Amino acid sequence: MRSEKASEDDIYGIYHEENTELKIVDYEIEVLTTEYFVDLAKVHFIEVPRWDDEKAWIDSSLDPYRKVLSNQAISNLREKIMGYRKMRNEQLVPIITSLTGLIGAVIGVVALFISR
Question: Is 30 exposed, middle or buried (0-12, 13-18, 19+ CB in 10 A)?
């Protein structure tokens, strides 16, 4: 048996359904990305853009009553968060290096006493 060809209405319906699903996925990505970066900024005490800043907060693609961060605002927050993490890591490196040296010295002294 040969399958029947899909009508134009069926093809349009499938296309419309897929397009709607993609819009929903894009909306969810916008919302989750905004929540992630706002939460991360709050944890690190980094200033979040003011709510009335129209360049930072834009209407979401599906819900006109929901605001999401613009790409530029996300980039700015990401840059500030990465700067904070870099600063924190730069503070930890000397401490870790010192502790490693101290542990090595203690092991050397213990080995010296055990060998005698």
Answer: buried
- The 8 Å CB, 24+ separation contacts for 66-71 are 66/31, 68/30, 68/31, 68/33, 68/34, 69/33, 69/34, 69/37, 69/38
The reported pLDDT for the residue numbered 12 is: 79
In a domain, 3, yes or no: no
Q: Is residue 33 a part of any domain in this protein?
A: yes
Q: Is residue 1 assigned to a domain? A: no
Nearest to 84 by CA among 33, 44, 38: 44
* Structural domains of the chain, count: 1
Alpha-helical regions (H) of 1-116: 8-43, 71-115
Does pTM top 0.90 for this prediction? no
**Do the domain assignments include residue 97?**
yes
Residue 38 clears pLDDT 70, i.e. is over it = yes
Coil/strand/helix, residue 65: coil
Structural domain for 71, as ranges: 8-115
